[in-house]
Design a protein that fits this description.
By secondary structure, the chain is of the alpha+beta class. The protein has one domain: Alpha-Beta Complex (Sufe protein. Chain: A). Helices cover about 45% and strands about 15% of the residues. The protein contains five helices and three strands; from the N terminus they run αβββαααα. The protein has a three-stranded antiparallel beta sheet with strand order 1-2-3, covered by helices on one side.
Length: about 140
Amino acid sequence: MNSELKALYRDTLLEHSREPKNNRVLKNADAYFELKNPLCGDLITIYLKVSHCIVSEATFEAQCCSICTASASMLTDQITKSDIEGGIDFADSLIESLLQPGISIANLENEEIQSLAGVKSFPSRIRCATLPWEAFKGAVSRLV
């Protein structure tokens, strides 16, 4: 990864961690799921409002590191207004691309989310990036 791309990714992560989008409790959520990373103490809750299998609103509440916060902010933007199955597929692709060597996160269509590629260089931080997406999948499982 070239230095300009690394700087862009770093700036995107910093922006989402300093001013996260949708960082609030969603009253009257149709589903929510809390997940904790016992290794570092990150704690996140994803809230979903769903209508006709479409996520009409997604928010989060967290006590976590900047990578987890940025990932949660990007998650809520990505899945809002998407169908549940599409959201699950995207979450699975992101998690797989971060966990599996040789799979590029550049295959994901969202350029902001591609900024999470930098965590692959720090294996201990990968869980920080995947935690919100796993919590989203947990919330969705409560809708069925």
